[in-house]
Amino acid sequence: MSILLFATHNPHKIQEVQTLLPPSMQLMSLQDVGFTSPIPEPYDTLEENSRIKALTVYEALHRDCFAEDSGLEVEALQGAPGARSARYAGEHVPDAAHIALLLSHMDGMEQRQAQFRTVITLIWKGKLFQVQGICKGHIAISPRGHGGFGYDPIFIPDGSRLTFAEMSLAEKNQFSHRAKAIKAFCDLISRLTAES
Ligand code: IMP
């Protein structure tokens, strides 16, 4: 059994990621280890934000841990909103505001290709590793569906006609960037465990 410290303050993420992991991998939260300081995500790339989140916790606790950062990258907008996905239309505004802003920037555009991407940084025995998961698709003309969160109502993954918000979580996980990144993460942990 591996016990992994997840460098996030978001309890929903802990729950979501735990459901994607095999039962032999158990997550420990920052709450479990009494870490309450804020975790910065000041950069413009998912790689840097994911790295600084893991390093912040590692340097404070001297414990191996992992962190993730995700975002929506729209080809015609040169990868925006990207690492700024959560605060595209401003801090603490509803998801509908981010969606409305993105759709307004894409008004009349025929090129609607986009991808969700998750970057996970693992610090293992003091060494840093990164893996990613990508889900390619396109941006719908208008929002559809009521499930999920964030940009789910306007993202249609390749291989489906439904938006993520029109799918169950199990259906979404068959496509999702986060599920793919977690799969790559599990493969990495298996390899590192076998090597040690
Ligand atoms: P986080 O790094 O996982 O917190 O994701 C940052 C932001 O990217 C979220 O606040 C959402 O706006 C967006 N995002 C990431 N993953 C998803 C997803 O699966 N569906 C919809 N939006 C997402």
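^ inosinic acid complex. Helices lie at 11-20, 46-61, 95-105, 169-173, 177-195. Residues 177-195 form the longest helix (19 residues).
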